[in-house]
Every structure is written in C-alpha cells, then in structure tokens.
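chain below, 114 aa
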Amino acid sequence: MAAKTPPETFRVRAEFLRLAARGRKLSRPGFLMQALVQPGDAPVRVGYTATKKIGNAVVRNRARRRLREAVRLTLAERPVCGVELVLVCRKETVTLPFATLCASLDSALSELRK
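prediction:
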C-alpha cells in the first residue's frame, strides 16, 4: 500500500545547511544522503537538492522527481520516524533504473538505523 501523502519537505536553506554540518553522510549509487536522527517520534522530513553540475533545469527537475517518488514508495513500505534527510542528486539519478534507486534508498535507510 503506497503512502497517500509525501513526507514533509525542507524549504529553508538554513535547514539544509544544518543537516550538511551535523548529519551523517551516506553515499549510494544515484544520490548522497545526509541524515540526522532525532530522538522521539518526530515525523520524517526530507529535502531534495540538485546542483547545476548534473545538468540543465530539465535534468535537475527529473532527478528530484525520481528521488521524491522513490522516497514516497520506500517510506510507505518501511515506516520511519524521527529522521531528517537531505538527498543530493547525482548525474546517475536520472539514468539509474528506478528499482535500483529504490533499493539504494532502502539500503541507506537500513544502514542509518544501525
């Protein structure tokens, strides 16, 4: 059963910078995850970013959309709470098979909980 609503997202640059400074970094094919585990049952918050290095606006938007959908599907199968994530797109995010992208995200979330 897929989640009906996506997780809450970061909108303010200061939140992205806070996670970059204090969060744990996990590298996977297709993305870099910066994560900060919060104590308690806080809802999952996610931020997505793509730099101009990966391509023009069309490519960057496609990469963010693919990551957003992968997060939505993965979190529907695996409920997680108390985590803040920033996913940084890479060039491979656009070309990587979607199933591989979802599997990479799932393995990163598993490693984060260790």
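The chain has four helices and five strands. The chain has a mean pLDDT of 89.
thats it, cya
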